[in-house]
Amino acid sequence: MAKALATKNPVSERMRSIRRVLWVILVLNLAVAAAKYVYGLMSGSASMQADGIHSVFDSAGNVVGLVGIALAARPADDSHPYGHAKFETYASLVIGVLLLLAAFEVGSSAVGKLVSGVYTAEVTPVSFIVMVGTLAVNIGVTTYERRCAKRLKSEVLAADANHTLSDALVSIGVIVGLAAVALGFPMADPIMALVVTVAILATAYDVFKHALATLSDHARIPDKDVQAVAMGVPGVQDAHHIRTRGTEGEVYADLHVLVAPGMTVGEAHELSERVERAIMQRFPNVIEVLVHIEPNDGHED
């Protein structure tokens, strides 16, 4: 029986790329937040102020993401032999908490207006210009960030993209609310603010779901996909006990490979290296593979 281990050093360029994306998004989110919140205060629109607050929390999430990426980029050490990649996941959890705080702020403000019966929103053409303009920015940011998240396999970018998408949907709701106010239904403004609250809570749930998948060591690659790659290597008679875990961008894999009982240690070692290379080539996000060699003599291990 022989064991072989292959590792691939995490590409620091991936972390640098994520950091650059977060800086760009931070600047755009701050601009959008300022435009919506300031005009919301000027016009007395609760839903516009709520949407502005939501965008501010988007910016806070970007800052958290930047801190998380800075920590995740540190190399492995004696205390963290598997590296620091999960700090990116922890950053996603903090973003989720910020979303819950935003939902409370927005929801309590809306409920207060509904209970008091005081509706102060004033709708002007500028209101719609501000909202439509910021909506266009949000849609552009979401599209850009989603593409980067997919390319870089980044949990922080994926969570932030979903967050920004919810901001865009919220903006659509605010526009609808302003239109209703203009038509003589002032109660629609705080009601749409409550819709904002629900959207934020839904986003928080999505963020927590993805972060907990990493922290609970949820399988990252289907076993059958890894098995198919291993079985495609000449000399491999079977593969089982396949496990994968880690973040979406840095996956660790281990598996048992069955070989001919008469294979020498040297031959088994060379075969294991070919299996490792095949898996890493097929799944670029796999940074480490542990192959456990077993003789295919009918025993179960």
From TrEMBL:
Keywords: Membrane, Transmembrane, Transmembrane helix, Transport
Membrane topology: Multi-pass membrane protein
Domain of life the protein comes from: Bacteria
Gene3D superfamilies, alphabetized: Cation efflux protein transmembrane domain, Cation efflux protein, cytoplasmic domain
UniProt GO cellular component terms: plasma membrane
Residues in Cation efflux protein transmembrane domain copies: 22-215
GO molecular function annotations of the record: cadmium ion transmembrane transporter activity; ferrous iron transmembrane transporter activity; zinc efflux antiporter activity
Compartment list: Membrane
SUPFAM superfamilies referenced in this protein's UniProt entry, alphabetically: Cation efflux protein cytoplasmic domain-like, Cation efflux protein transmembrane domain-like
Organism encoding this protein: Eggerthella lenta (strain ATCC 25559 / DSM 2243 / CCUG 17323 / JCM 9979 / KCTC 3265 / NCTC 11813 / VPI 0255 / 1899 B) (Eubacterium lentum)
InterPro entries: Cation_efflux, Cation_efflux_CTD, Cation_efflux_CTD_sf, Cation_efflux_TM, Cation_efflux_TMD_sf, CDF_Transporter
Transmembrane segments: 21-39, 59-77, 89-111, 123-144, 165-185, 191-208
Residue ranges of every copy of the Cation efflux protein cytoplasmic domain listed in the record: 225-295
Name the UniProt record assigns to this protein: Cation diffusion facilitator family transporter
